[in-house]
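ugh ok so i messed up the first submission bc i forgot one of the chains. this is the corrected input, ALL of the components this time, i swear. 816 residues overall. if the numbers dont match what u have on ur side tell me asap before i send this to the collaborators (the ones from the other lab, u know who)
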Amino acid sequence: MDEVRTEAWWGRRAWALLSAVRARTPLVQCITNLVSMDIVANAMLAAGASPAMIHCLREVPDFSPRCDAVYINVGTLSEDWLPSMRAAASSGRPWVFDPVAVAASGFRMEACLSLLALRPAVVRGNASEILALASRSDDSFKGVDSSHDSSDALQAAKALAQSSGAVVAVSGAVDFITDGMQVVSASNGVPMMQKITATGCAVTALIAAFVGADPSDALVAAACALAIFGLAGEIGMESARGPASLRMHLIDALYGLDEQTVTSGVKISLLP
Amino acid sequence: MDEVRTEAWWGRRAWALLSAVRARTPLVQCITNLVSMDIVANAMLAAGASPAMIHCLREVPDFSPRCDAVYINVGTLSEDWLPSMRAAASSGRPWVFDPVAVAASGFRMEACLSLLALRPAVVRGNASEILALASRSDDSFKGVDSSHDSSDALQAAKALAQSSGAVVAVSGAVDFITDGMQVVSASNGVPMMQKITATGCAVTALIAAFVGADPSDALVAAACALAIFGLAGEIGMESARGPASLRMHLIDALYGLDEQTVTSGVKISLLP
Amino acid sequence: MDEVRTEAWWGRRAWALLSAVRARTPLVQCITNLVSMDIVANAMLAAGASPAMIHCLREVPDFSPRCDAVYINVGTLSEDWLPSMRAAASSGRPWVFDPVAVAASGFRMEACLSLLALRPAVVRGNASEILALASRSDDSFKGVDSSHDSSDALQAAKALAQSSGAVVAVSGAVDFITDGMQVVSASNGVPMMQKITATGCAVTALIAAFVGADPSDALVAAACALAIFGLAGEIGMESARGPASLRMHLIDALYGLDEQTVTSGVKISLLP
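and heres the new structure output, hopefully the right one now
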């Protein structure tokens, strides 16, 4: 593309994608962890998408092909859900991968590597998760929350994008999104969002909704979804008195976002 | 019955049933989908019922007979939960059925038809679900949210009630409840409730609580539960700034409903 | 210990333990029921802990030994999760047990007795649960909510503590915590907390976080966690308009607790 990707360009793209989600109501199959179900579904509905938490292997052949996108999250991985994850990821629909706590066990690392081989459109993780996945090592596990800054994982993200063919997003105080060549940063959000469980899951599901509404450019979709979710967090923070009220105000804000707020509020830029 | 079912009569019945739930604290076994667990449990507690999410097949023989009612919801159906659903539905207690996304797959349609044969007291779905269940066809699937108006499904609901022996409720902007002969409409609620995940599950669980508190008339119980939940949504909407705050205010309102509010607020009528 | 355990002493201990949780961010594996996942994770994050809901048996050998504590809750018990519970309880980490609705079935009673034999650091239940567990009988089951006052279960709690080697906490309007010899009471909290699903699960998880941050005295950790959670409920109640807003304000309050509020607010005393 020859167009110059200014901050204003990103603002227009973010609004166009959110509008596409609202207009097309993409149906997104979510095979996600048990902790995240409520916030994932509510965030997607607030954004205008249609989430469907369906994880039964026998339903995948009928159901997954009808979806606009698939979201897979291994937070509460189990042996009986893994075949459904693999089948849904293989259904031919664009899919987005959240390798939660990938280094928690050897079993989880293997499961994530096997899913990664099924060519997700986007992988989104925190810095510790992306570092572990890129190195294929669970040596550094410290818990489900990241013990690294997102910038620590930038080279790992680029390498992972190149080896997997996926867009890789590392979330943190600044989010980095890369296809292995270009790197985009998204700087919306507030620190207290990390005190709400499954906000990472919710934003990754939102990436799936954006990809489902417009699969033409997964890098742009991922950056815009991350920025918009963070922007909703910033607006929510104005009314919040703690993490539980932030959660409520964030989802309300996501629902109420208008063109002016989005185009002027998202902070995305292409790194040189 | 010879009494005339005026709007005032319905108001008094709705209040009497809510009061019965609060006084008797019906124990309701809920085998419900993973997304809905939190809002189902909290809505039932706010209404005065005692929910118990117990889905293990080995517990059904001891536990289900102790319950006042059973609620079964297939939203996140799996092969290992289906036998528990069947066993609980066969326990001799009145039970209420929520055939979420019945047309999502052939497996789900078959599972729902097998449950329907176990004679639920009430089936509650959106128009798309009732149409699919009545026609035994999954051709029209568009997602878990309805792509039809409730009035589109009225004839299907009557036919389904006649063939199944259940009261059938179709929820939408106006809810219709029928035993195959009479049709009652309930018109409470606000559109934004559809932007909160699992409100349909929560109101169906509330129907189970009402049936558990007074099993004498499932048609009346279903209509009153739908109207009361919708009324709580209307009250919640007065303070809401989006779907997440609506969810909170709805449950607070359900907890705080008083006689004057219920008797004057429910909008139920018998269709001619 | 020779120090006199005045109310002021308890206030200082409670603050010291909450500060330890915030400083050390204990990683707590939670194998908990499906209803409670959201509130358990959010309450733990608000308190400063790092929850990880991981229940897959194949992950236990790698993951459980890395945790500071384990929390096990049988609310939605199933045959396939029980081996994971047993394995995590046997991993050598201190663990806290929530025998939700232990008397709901013979299967559940047996499962709880088998877990109890694996020497939890703390068992926390309502009066009905502790009475049933101590008597090994499911005759009295009335539902997941308690049908007894906590004081009814005090002798049962002492006997259970002596036979199991665990600290036993009975929660209610007044919580009692005993190691079989000493009995401590904690009197924080508000009645409406019982109208929020899984508050009992959340406070038991918080006990696990406190034990994880400082395993030196499980009796003190349990009493302080119960009092602090109740204190957050009292503060939340000042802004609540019903159970759903109480839930939000409680978690916000838990996040915001400061030294003055904790030291002057917890109501713990050693019974003579």
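quick check: Chain C has one domain: 7-265. that seems consistent at least. Chain C touches chain A through 34 residues (CB under 8 Å).
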